[in-house]
Write a structure and sequence with these properties.
Length: about 350
């Protein structure tokens, strides 16, 4: 079970206890080398952001897959992400999804695992004929309660049984931040293919499987020591530690070091499933845990499932977080590594 332990860490949904995470100079230990024993709890990995890792995976009786329905946390989830979604939705996920879709005007688009309809409303506002389906009746009820200028069709249904849940075919299908919460994948991809018109496209966004695997990846720090006698900066006369002390012109060099953040990956190719706590901050304060399931798979598993359903990947993108740390001694390094290690993986596949 994954639990974020310190204030300011991102929750399993990708949300922070505070909107801008403080630079954790006082909270994250420095380890000597990348193999050091200290491994800070990876709060960014559990199930991602707001739109988050909400699964469209529960359906009753007779289904062979695991259940990870969000119906029991619908109100909590709605309060968490709000009407427009989190900052990750607004600044990364929705703009990236729309870019991969292209011009949506006049196109029929189905959003699978639509939650309370954040993407559906955006698509409709841009001129698409939008529909959404989700396994959680309460989330669909919340989606229907949001009135827009254009009508949106919503359906309660299992992502692994799209043929039973949603009538008709579509020019495009989307699935945003939910595939890593649905098991098995095969029926989902087959259902998507069955709902797509010829040459239709499927756009999906998920937590990056390589770098955001719950329980298998974590942030850490290492101290890189400079060669003995090295000066910080280019001019010893400006930066020498004993300037103004001792004999003029006889400053002694000092050892300097640089602290760097890294992403540790302890496993990747082996599939794994894990129960995750969605509200670690409240749990730490004595509140009741809200849990759901997440399923780690390597990227090849997604590509294989798509190919088996007749869907060919034609675009693949990796998106970093756009959040920035609050000022602090490690903020610059945190911001650098956040830009370098992607948080999300997105793809567009076409029906062959």
């Amino acid at each position: 079970m994954l639990v974020g332990m310190t204030k300011g860490e991102e929750l399993p949904t990708g949300e922070d206890d505070v909107r801008r995470a403080p630079a954790p100079s006082e909270a994250s230990p420095v380890v000597q080398g990348a193999t050091g024993p200290s491994r800070p709890n990876d709060a960014t990995t559990a199930s991602a952001d707001g739109a988050a890792a909400r699964a469209d995976a529960e359906q009753p009786s007779g289904d062979t897959g695991r259940s990870s329905s969000w119906d029991h946390v619908a109100e909590w989830y709605d309060q968490l992400v709000g009407e427009r979604g989190s900052d990750h939705h607004e600044r990364v996920i929705l703009p990236g999804t729309l870019r991969l879709l292209g011009d949506v005007r006049g196109r029929r688009i189905l959003d699978v695992a639509c939650g309370q309809g954040i993407l559906c409303r955006r698509l409709a506002s841009l001129g698409a004929s939008a529909s959404g389906t989700d396994a959680a009746p309460r989330l669909i009820a919340l989606a229907k309660s949001q009135k827009g200028e254009r009508p949106i069709d919503y359906y309660v249904g299992d992502a692994r049984r799209l043929g039973d849940a949603v009538p008709g075919t579509f020019d495009a299908v989307t699935c945003i931040m939910a595939l890593m919460n649905i098991d098995p994948l095969g029926p989902v991809m087959e259902g998507v293919a069955s709902k797509l018109a010829p040459s239709g496209v499927f756009v999906a966004v998920m937590l990056h499987p390589a770098f955001r695997a719950p329980g298998q990846t974590s942030w850490g720090w290492e101290e890189i020591k400079a060669p003995e006698g090295a000066w910080r900066g280019s001019s010893p006369s400006r930066d020498r530690p004993d300037r103004g002390r001792g004999k003029r012109g006889h400053a002694k060099p000092r050892d300097v070091s640089e602290v760097r953040q890294y992403r540790r990956v302890d496993g990747y190719l082996s599939p794994a499933e894990r129960e995750i706590v969605m509200n670690p901050g409240r749990v730490a304060s004595g509140g009741k845990a809200i849990t759901t399931m997440t399923y780690h798979r390597p990227i090849q598993s997604y590509v294989s499932a798509l190919a088996s359903a007749g869907l060919l990947v034609e675009a693949l993108e990796e998106w970093p977080s756009v959040r920035r740390s609050q000022p602090g001694p490690r903020a610059a390094e945190e911001n650098r590594i956040r830009r370098e290690i992607p948080m999300f993986l997105a793809f567009r596949a076409v029906k062959r």
